[in-house]
C-alpha cells in the first residue's frame, strides 16, 4: 500500500493505492498520522487505485473517521471501486461513510 497527499482548500486528499489489509494497517495509521498530524482538516480518501480491503482495513477506516470526528472534521471517500463499495454495503458501512464519484464532488460536500 502507498499513500500520497495533496492539499486542497476544502480538505487534505489522501490517495491510497494497493490493498488495505491487516498487513498494511499499522503502515496506514502511521502514514495518516504523519500526513495529517492532529487531524486538523477534513480528509478525502481517493480510492481510485485501492485494491482489496479486509475487516482490519475497515476498522482502520473507522478509526480515521472517529479521530477526525473528535477533532471536529469529516471523512469523505472519492472514486471507490465497485468491489470496495460492495464490502461497504455488505457491512452497512455505506450508511456511515459518505462516498462520492470524484474528489471535486467530495470537496463540495463539505460546504
Describe the protein in words.
- By secondary structure, the protein is of the alpha/beta class.
- The protein has one domain: 2-Layer Sandwich (Transcription Regulator spoIIAA).
- It has 4 helices and 5 strands, in the order E-E-H-E-H-E-H-E-H.
- Strands 1-2-3-4-5 form a 5-stranded mixed β-sheet.
- Helix 1 packs parallel to helix 2.
- It is globular and about 30 Å long.
- The N and C termini lie far apart (31 Å).
- The mean pLDDT is 93.
List keywords for this structure.
about 110 residues, alpha/beta, Transcription Regulator spoIIAA
CATH class: Alpha Beta
Overall radius of gyration: 13 Å
CATH T-level topology = Transcription Regulator spoIIAA
Largest sheet: 5 strands, mixed
Q: Number of domains in the coordinates?
A: 1
How much of the polypeptide forms β-strand, as a percent range?
A: 25-35%
CATH homology-level superfamily: STAS domain
Structural class: alpha/beta
Shape-level CATH architecture: 2-Layer Sandwich
Give the overall pLDDT as a whole number. 93
Question: How would you sum up the global shape?
Answer: globular
Low-confidence segments, ≥5 residues, pLDDT <50? none
Order of helices and strands: EEHEHEHEH
Helix content: 25-40%
**Number of beta-strand segments:** 5
**Strand order across the largest sheet:** 1-2-3-4-5
Amino acid at each position: 500500500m502507498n499513500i500520497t497527499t495533496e492539499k486542497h482548500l476544502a480538505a487534505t486528499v489522501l490517495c491510497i493505492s494497493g490493498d488495505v489489509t491487516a498487513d498494511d494497517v499499522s503502515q496506514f495509521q502511521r502514514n495518516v498520522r504523519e500526513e495529517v498530524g492532529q487531524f486538523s482538516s477534513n480528509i478525502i480518501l481517493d480510492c481510485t487505485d485501492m485494491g482489496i480491503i479486509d475487516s482490519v482495513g475497515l476498522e482502520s477506516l473507522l478509526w480515521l473517521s472517529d479521530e477526525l470526528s473528535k477533532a471536529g472534521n469529516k471523512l469523505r471517500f472519492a472514486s471507490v471501486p465497485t468491489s470496495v463499495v460492495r464490502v461497504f454495503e455488505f457491512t452497512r458501512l455505506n450508511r456511515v461513510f459518505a462516498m462520492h464519484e470524484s474528489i471535486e464532488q467530495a470537496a463540495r460536500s463539505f460546504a
